[in-house]
Amino acid sequence: DHGVLRVGSHGPYQVEEEETYPAFVMAKEHYGRILRLMDRKIQVTLELNLETKFHDDDTKAYNVIAEIPGTDPQLKDEVVMLGGHLDSWHSGTGATDNASGCAAMMEAVRILQSIGVKPRRTIRIALWSGEEQGLLGSVNYVKNHFADLMTMQLKEEHEKFSGYFNMDNGTGKIRGIYLQGNEAVRPIFEAYLKPFHYLDATTVTTSNTGGTDHLSFHSAGLPGFQFIQDPIEYRTRTHHTNVDVSEYVVEDDLKQAAVIIATFVYHTAMR
Fold first, then answer.
1. Span 151-188, pLDDT tens digits
2. How far is CA 172 from CA 93, 164, 238, 256, 265, in A?
3. Considering 18, 51, 131, 233, which one is annotated as catalytic?
4. Which of 105, 191, 195, 247 is most buried by its number of CB atoms within 10 A?
5. What is the pLDDT of residues 190-246, one digit of tens each?
6. Which residues contact 133 (CB under 8 A, 6 or more apart)?
7. 183 noted as active-site residue
8. Where are the beta strands (DSSP E) in the chain?
């Protein structure tokens, strides 16, 4: 509708299968014209051009990980994480899903670095791959470091994990945070947000939210959280569409988000 093309997953493409066919997406204005011509018994001729390349070298996906090492001898092995996902759908450039989240997370770490923070716990940022294919990057990271989600066999690092904060709902400014049912952290997060009430970041809700990488941590019994953001045009226009491009990114909103994220990460690393 309105010139917006939305794409999504329709299963794997198996090269070795004989009966596999290419798929095309057509604007409804063109589709409607074809139908009207056919209804009038007018022959329709289509000319299609498909260019496809198969890559046989490295088909793996990679996470990008960086950290500010902890400095407290007793707490430096404990980890506070923040992150977003790098991958996006091919119809646009992934500006709001989720380059904006990655940019805000990277800016939060830059802020902490620029003011010379020496955190008690280690602060670790992750830019995930494979989120759009089923949280693959974060699921495998959790499996390798904290817990196997299939068996729930915990690793040693599990008990040293302090929290994960995620941003993946477009370009809008932060209005609060979802608790994922974890009421024990409500007073903590309310205190974190108090200095930002003048920026309208006031909401701490017990509600759950899904569809992104904090669930990989939450499912392993770890404190994983997603921020509440202004929707802007995320669900209605830019999410997985051909207009998920940088023109729809609101720079000032991302600056607000980066400051709040930096505060959450800093206090969690220091408390």
1. 999 999 999 999 999 999 999 999 999 999 999 999 99
2. 17, 20, 12, 9, 19
3. 131
4. 105
5. 999 999 999 999 999 999 999 999 999 999 999 999 999 999 999 999 999 999 999
6. 9, 87
7. no
8. 64-68, 79-85, 122-128, 161-166, 174-178, 203-205, 224-229
